[in-house]
Amino acid sequence: MGTSAKMLIVDDNTDLCKNLADILEDRGMVVRMAHDGCNAIAAIQVEDFDLVLMDIKMPVMNGVEAYRKIRETKPDTPVIMMTAFTTDELVREALREGVHAVLHKPLDLEVLLTTVESSRDAGRMILVVDDDHDLCDNLMDILRGHGYRVSCANTSEEAIQAAQANNADIYLIDLKLPTRNGLETYLAVKDIRPNAIAVIITAYADELPHLVDSALQCGAYAYLRKPVDIEMLTDVVDKALRSRGVIAE
Are the C-beta atoms of 167 and 139 separated by less than 8 Å? Predict the structure, then answer.
């Protein structure tokens, strides 16, 4: 996020708001504060913001309700939620509603700053989910060379955490993963991000056709065989992004 970007911080903890404002202003951002959902909505109606950083649990109107109202007025404004409750249903609601990310309190400053930056660079984001570290590194290098933003998760658990922390456009998921397979991982991600676009990759399509078929029936966009043909992969990814309006036709 560039210098002079404008952020709205919403939290009923006034000390936290002030501390966050000081940190972000030191990094060149313009910061406004609101201490409940109603005041946040009022601020959004009269002023444009590049980002809203908002607590989920607040009196009068919680963050999810406020987010829905904000989306009606300024649908393109990215919203990052904060919470001290890791398993609260409101967290799941927020993610399903489409917030950019949910960060857990106490906030990790570096994670916050990275998430703030990513919120202003939306589109063409791919999460590669594969326990083969070398393959992940190779795909990251190749896809970044094609202009995509790419990150990796090596386990199902890491993929689910990544889905909570960032709203990727494409989830490229290996069918064989430790602890749970690619189909189960896709369904867990989809539960958090209902609009997730998944492309399944596998070297075992002939051995596990039922998993491939089930993934496609559950909404996966496509599957590709390993070794992955990069030209075919980028073609599938571009078509998927166009189908969702992430990139223009």
Answer: no
Percent over 70 (pLDDT), the chain: 93
Rounded Cα distance between 174 and 154, Å, is 10
Strand pairing class (51-55; 6-10): parallel
The predicted pLDDT at position 165 comes to: 78
Question: Which helix H or strand E contains 191, and what residues bound it?
Answer: helix 182-192
pTM as predicted: 0.68
Q: How far apart are the first and last CA of the chain?
A: 27
Number of domains in the chain: 2
Q: For the segment 75-118, what is each residue's pLDDT rounded down to a tens digit?
A: 888 899 998 876 578 888 888 787 888 888 999 888 888 788 77
Q: What is the C-alpha to C-alpha distance for residues 145 and 151, in angstroms, rounded to an integer?
A: 13
Task: Give yes or no for a contact between 100 and 79, defined as CB atoms under 8 angstroms apart.
Answer: yes
Rounded Cα distance between 152 and 130, Å, is 8
248 within domain boundaries = no
Q: For residues 182 and 172, is the Cβ–Cβ distance under 8 A?
A: no
The answer, yes or no, to whether residue 166 has pLDDT greater than 80, is no
* Domain harbouring 14, CATH code: 3.40.50.2300
Residues paired with residue 32 on neighbouring β-strands, in sequence order = 8
Place of tokens 């300024």: 74
- Contact partners, residue 220, CB within 8 Å, separation at least 6: 186, 198, 199, 200
188 and 94 in a single domain? The answer is no
Residue 249 lies in a domain: no
Determine, yes or no, domain membership for 197. yes
